[in-house]
Amino acid sequence: MKRFTVIVSLLLLVFFVPPAPQRAQAAEERYAAAVEADVWFYASDNENSRLFLLPATYYVKVLSEGETFTRVEYLTDDAPYQKISGYCRTEDLLFVDYIPVRPFLRKEVTLSYTLPQTGGLGGGSFSTVEKTFVYYGHRYEGDTLYYYVLSGDTFDYIPAEKELEYEKNTDCLDYLAAQSASAEAEKAQGGMNASAILVICIACAAAIAIAVLVVRGKRPPAIEDHED
After folding, report:
1. In the 8-state DSSP scheme, what is residue 140?
2. For the chain, what is the mean pLDDT?
């Protein structure tokens, strides 16, 4: 009887154990990508607290997922960079099951300012000054483009002439393409139909019946041919 139990258990494992997931969810950290260029980073969980548009194809670190807003972090405390906490709309994010190699855009921008020439002392040696900022994202206010930046410990907006150019991530795009391909394949296949399930059940039943006969020391009955 013990042998019978072992055989049946092995058969059930062969036929009914679901396949292991291809990617394991990281327990320590979870990330979500801003695939498009229209994902807002909010100061709080309401529409009136928009700060900036996240750089497309980069990520936020997920702190807690909500139905409408997800609490997130962007960048890290690594001078001159500084992490910022806020929210994104849950439906705007692509949640992934891997830890990205380059989750955040690490970009600094240097802007030149020309001081007004008002006359007086000096030869005008310092009529132009430059200042470097850490770039977080951008937004438009009317027709004016602004960068959301950090200088020291201060976050603020600075006007800009054009949107920043930067290298895009490809891992989230590849992940999205794989997800779409998998969905299309599943849709085309239609999942396991009733006939396939019935065939598996019959095969299992036949295998169990043979196992029972083997355990009992009996041979399966021969199939007789009947001629009219």
Report:
1. E
2. 79
Give the CA dihedral 157, 162, 168, 174, nearest 10 degrees: 100
Query: Using an 8 Å Cβ cutoff, are 50 and 70 in contact?
Result: no
Give the pLDDT confidence of 31-59 residue by residue, as tens digits. 999 999 999 999 999 999 999 999 999 99
**What count of Cα atoms within 13 Å lies in the side-chain half-sphere of residue 193?**
5
Closest C-alpha to 34, from 4, 64, 72, 66: 72
Q: Which two tokens stand for residue 121?
A: 């002392």
Query: In which element (H, E) is residue 125 found?
Result: none
Q: For residue 134, what is the enclosing H or E element?
A: strand 128-141
Cβ-based neighbours of 7, under 8 Å, separated by 6 or more: 208, 211, 214, 215
CA nearest neighbour of 57 among 166, 183, 179: 166
Is the model's pLDDT at 110 over the cut of 90?
A: yes
Instruction: Give the number of other Cβ atoms within 10 Å of residue 87's Cβ.
Output: 23
pLDDT tens, position by position, 140-199: 999 999 999 999 999 999 999 999 999 999 999 899 888 777 777 777 776 555 555 555
Look at residue 7 and give its three-state secondary structure.
Answer: helix
Dig out the tokens for 63 from the structure. Answer: 């702190």
**Token pair recorded at residue 31:** 């990330």
Three-class DSSP category at 91: helix
Number of other CB atoms surrounding residue 215 within 10 Å: 16
DSSP character at residue 26: P
